[in-house]
Amino acid sequence: MKRNKTVYKMSIVALLIGIMALMGFTPIGTIQAGVLTISLLGIPLAITACIFGPYYGALLGLVWGLIAIVQSITGMDPLGLTLLAINPFGLIVTCIVPRVLTGFLAGLVYKLNTKWDKKGHINSVVTCALVTVFNTTFFMTSLTAFFLNTPELQGIAQALSNTYGVNAFNPFLFIVFAVGINFLVEIAVNAIVGSAAVFGLEKATKHLNIKEDMK
Asked: Is residue 99 scored above 70 in pLDDT?
């Protein structure tokens, strides 16, 4: 029985990894709404972190980071390809570390909050929203730390300064105005879609008795 539980668990995690990869390399991983581009790659990570805990969340974060690196190498992400040529180490850190931290912290938050939210209704919404907050905060912090002084990001900072009338060359203001309204919309989308998926999958894993022990 224990072996069956492990097989079921790894099968679900592998499926979520496959879904993340499919999202990363096809257009279904983003929602284009006018000028807004909403990434959905955080949803499989959020589901995994909530259902199976922080270490599996970190694993999905690693997968997400590797997908971002492949996107940069292949030119799917033109900015990533340019930054890779400037500072490969900086790009690798920026792609991987924020996502791994995001997955781990999301799983930890969900695990800690189960002590007061036994049914997980609020917990799953909060955790899925925090995936976007964590990822954006860590990713943009790393990006500015390694690349703000490059011509590419200086050009973006100049454009933001001209558009909003602020000094976007300041790292904090650069992050705030670079993420813009996309950040808020992505939080809402991931919270709604991610929490709905968590509810369904949590019932399935409980039925199979393979959910991580959250005590």
From this structure: yes
Alpha-carbon distance of 183 to 44, in angstroms, equals: 18
Burial (0-12, 13-18, 19+ Cβ within 10 Å), 67: buried
Q: Which structure tokens are listed for 44?
A: 């499989």
43, amino acid identity = I
**Any idea what DSSP says for residue 76?**
S
Please write the tens of the pLDDT for every residue from 150-169: 999 999 999 999 999 999 99
* Dihedral Cα 57, 189, 24, 49, nearest 10 deg: 10
- Condensed to tens digits (0 to 9), the pLDDT of residues 120-149 reads 678 889 999 999 999 999 999 999 999 999
Nearest to 102 by CA among 72, 68, 73: 68
Class of domain 2-207: mainly alpha
CA distance 103 to 78: 25
Tokens of 46: 């959020």
Domain ranges for the chain, please list them: 2-207
Which two tokens mark 116? 């007061």
